[in-house]
Amino acid sequence: MSIFSKYEGLASALASVTAGGGRNPFNVVIEKPISSTVGLIEGRETLLFGTNNYLGLSQSPAAIKAAIAAAEAYGVGTTGSRIANGTQGLHRQLEERLCAFFRRRHCMVFSTGYQANLGTISALAGKDDYLLLDADSHASIYDGSRLGHAQVIRFRHNDADDLHKRLRRLEGTPGAKLVVVEGIYSMMGDVVPMAEFAAVKRETGAWLLADEAHSVGVMGKHGRGVAEADGVEDDVDFVVGTFSKSLGTVGGYCVSNHDGLDLIRLCSRPYMFTASLPPEVIAATMAALTELENHPELRTRLMDNARRLHAGLQAAGLRTGPQASPVVSVILDDVAVAVAFWNRLLDLGVYVNLSLPPATPDQHPLLRTSVMATHTPAEIDKAVDVFATVAREMGLSHAA
Amino acid sequence: MSETVASVSALIVKTLLANPKVPRDINGSSKIVEDLAFDSLAVMNFVMEIEDTLDVSVPLDRLADIRTIDDLAACIVSLKQAS
């Protein structure tokens, strides 16, 4: 018996995705970025609508210049973890910059956003504590819960009343209760009603962690995310986020005003046993953060673009999520149709993400798009046209 | 507590049968994943429905040991008794 036998179901699911001669959607190669919005795929210039590069800063000249200068000054790697092999000055600088940006006293930087959730959640919620997770939480949140051995209870997606009900059931039980929500949910682009969750947290004495991976740089007057936009930052005990979306690099962080956060450095395995961020990434991230702070018009443009894409896809008769946000997903009913649709979009020069159940809410396959501040109106209109063309070809257009 | 494993098991079966995709011949010894063809997400969502009906929360780690509908019923009864 092969060690891979347990994956026979997965292999047949993958085979069915490619059965009609279509591509393996998990094997698309962006051969070269031409700009933040256009990449070379299969030798063709292709509009990128699936990179999470919300502000286009992966191609920021200032960030590129900073990365080159840092590599020349400090080298290209740290070759170890901060706990075992030492913190470098740049790590401290980045944490201080993030503290200043978020107006919080403490910051821990992780090597990826995934590890930021894994490392924070697993260390904060131990085996005698309760984690209350939104049902549509990202895999990194679920994985963090498994690493930490806390009792895990799900509440209905974006439903603060449902959370309240589940916290009420825990009244009188010992152990901390840590509630985890996301700012913008990555599959459908829906935004958390943070003020409602903050009210439940205040009433019940629970702790609140907000993963603002998709909302920092996107929402709030200063780009600090949904908690800022809703005016409830003081109620959010821990903000976790990533550099790999609006900041265009890689890495993650947790910021907090709780002094205990520094202790987490000594018990968070995903922080302790991973190589720390290299100098060029840190320098590029700090430069991108400066761009984010100095160019609030990027957020305005991003949301204008999100509304344009969302409205355009709806006008084309396609079913989308309820609100315009930088993640706009087209909801389909059938996996085979979604696969064919996705292939045809790529044939016609538009790259989006094919998201399949069970990674999606409600078992629906999604054509997930992410918008950028750097998309031109013409690029968005072109993408909408291509979506409409494919929908017509496939008999899926139900425009009013 | 008025709930017994048998009564909770019957309630779970009744809830499951409201879903037309679930086979009609299920009973307490039916295996949730194999016999009902539920994936991990479907199991969690279904348990959420039962939680609301019985006003109980089932921690996810408890689901790892549950194979049959009767196992789930026994787990819920023990959680209700503990609260």
TrEMBL record, chain B:
SUPFAM superfamilies per the UniProt record, alphabetical? ACP-like
Signal sequence, renumbered to the chain: none
PROSITE patterns named in the record: CARRIER
Q: Which Gene3D superfamilies match?
A: ACP-like
Domain Carrier positions: 3-80
This protein's name: Acyl carrier protein
Q: Which organism is it from?
A: Komagataeibacter europaeus (Gluconacetobacter europaeus)
Q: What is the lineage of its organism?
A: Bacteria, Pseudomonadati, Pseudomonadota, Alphaproteobacteria, Acetobacterales
